[in-house]
Amino acid sequence: MLMKLALRNLLQHRSKSIIVGALMAFGVMLLVAGNSVMDSLSYKMRTSFTEQYSGDLFIYTDPVAKELKAFEEKLATMPARAQERMKNNAPTNTEDNTSIFGGFGGSEENAMPNMEENWQALNELDFIEVISPQTIGRANLENGEGAESMTMFWGVDANAWQAIGFTQHLQWIKGGMWQAGDTAIAISADVAERYEESLGQPVNVGDEVQLTVTSDVGTVIRAVKVSGIFNFKTTSAPQLDFMSLVDIHTSQSFLGLHIDISEAGQLTAAEQDMLASDPEDDLFGGGGLFTEGDNTAVDGADLEADLMASLASNKQQQVEPTRQYNFVVVKLKQGVDPVQAQQELADWFKQRDLIWTSGNWEQAAGMVASMANNITLVLHGFMVLIAVVAIIIIMNTLVISVTERMVEIGTMRALGGQKGFIRRLILLETLILAIAAGVVGIIAASIVIAILAVTGLEPTNSFFSLVFGGEALHPSLSLTAIGNALVMMVVAALLASLYPLAIALKVSPVKAMQG
Question: Residue 145: pLDDT above 90?
């Protein structure tokens, strides 16, 4: 009976029902469409990072734990009294702004400690599919004759990068990834363009360029070959325009993360020609520095033999490079929750007494993720404001509706209807109206999202171009947004009905019938 009365009352007051329902439907449409766009944007950003270069997680040295460990080691060397005084000065900074775009520095001190003995065990964790060791630095791309261009670079293992799936998300303009063991660089298209402008001619695959890197260990220059020129498919971070890829061993030697002993020390052709020049007296003869007591000049051939023997005895030997990296990118197995994986990694680090920690794609994104989160907060605040305004408007409309129904409510009270009955009736009417309006709002939002999915939301300026990853956003309808919007509108409608309901129940039946 209560349901029939509620439906009859809604139909009898059709105009008021349509006004209130339209307001509710509009609110639901805004909530569903707005949150669907934001969910699609968040999904696009997450997949853009995780599929192109950040992986599901990345592991690096915990800067806070590192600082605390250094403090404890220093403390252990002090006398007991000094230790007591220094304990109060333990580092308390908990801020960690590390991302895969920087914050490491170039030297062995900035490599992940204890990697060599834990590498195999890390690979064998059952929730990890692939790991990719990486370094990061900044270099000048030069030809030795004045042409140059600045680039940031990731030092990567070619096999690991391909196994994790990153290379398939690169757009190759020329060439491709180098083969394992090559000394090579794959150059970002923007970096290549600036270098070509400086060089005055195109850069081709196989060209040799000089990379100059200045870091904590000094300035290092290496000649590398260009394996390819590429673009990231989506520019979801401003640093990508400057980011090139260098083979991991070369990058390690740049940053002092291992001693480069892969090449034998040899004399250059010019040096050999100089040693073979005739006469030797031009080099070694004459009085003074290179004469003996009997004024006989040192034999140039003997000196050359001694020099070559010294080089041979100190000849560098080929050895396996050490595992010293700035961070390690992790691809998790299908279905593994990144949050759960981070917790398991934290436990694993603790068990092995490692000062490592892990970050997700948002930390890898750094500034871009912060901007996206801020935009999300602003939009959510806007949605809350819409909900508050909707509650006020619905409340005012319901107050008018209930006031107009005072005689009807008074009659029901006079015929024996208790306050509880009246309360349930009005709340049921509001609930039916909210659900019906919610369904209409969801249908309207679905139409809006379907149109946007076809046409796409084009970035209108550089800011939105960065947030959208440099291309149009094609949103999809979010089931989470639908559920949240429907619940929010039902709660808002019920809250809005409380005040007019309180007004109606305060009026006595006799006075209500007289009104």
Answer: no
The answer to whether 492 and 391 are in contact (CB under 8 A) is yes
232 falls in which pLDDT band (50, 70, 90)? confident
Helices 367-404, 14-49: crossing angle, 10 deg rounding: 170
Burial of 185 (0-12, 13-18, 19+ CB in 10 A): buried
> Tell me, what's the pLDDT at 318?
40
pLDDT above 70 for 476: yes
In whole angstroms, what is the distance from residue 444 CA to residue 200 CA? 57
The CA distances from residue 188 to 192, 216, 279, 392, in Å, are 6, 25, 52, 54
Question: Out of 288-297, 404-413, 442-451, which region has the weakest mean confidence (pLDDT)?
Answer: 288-297
Where do the domains of the chain lie? 2-52+368-514, 57-89, 128-262+320-327, 269-313
| Whole-number Å distance between alpha carbons of 256 and 207 | 25
List 58's β-bridge partners, or say none.
329, 359
DSSP characters over 315-362: -----PPP---SEEEEEEPTT--HHHHHHHHHHHHHHTT--EEEEEHH
Rounded mean pLDDT, 486-496: 81
Q: List, in sequence order, every residue forming a beta bridge with 220; answer none if it has no partner.
A: 213
Token pair recorded at residue 404? 């107009």
pLDDT band at 311 (very low <50, low <70, confident <90, very high): very low
Contact 99, 363 (CB under 8 A): yes
Greatest Cα pair distance in the chain: 141
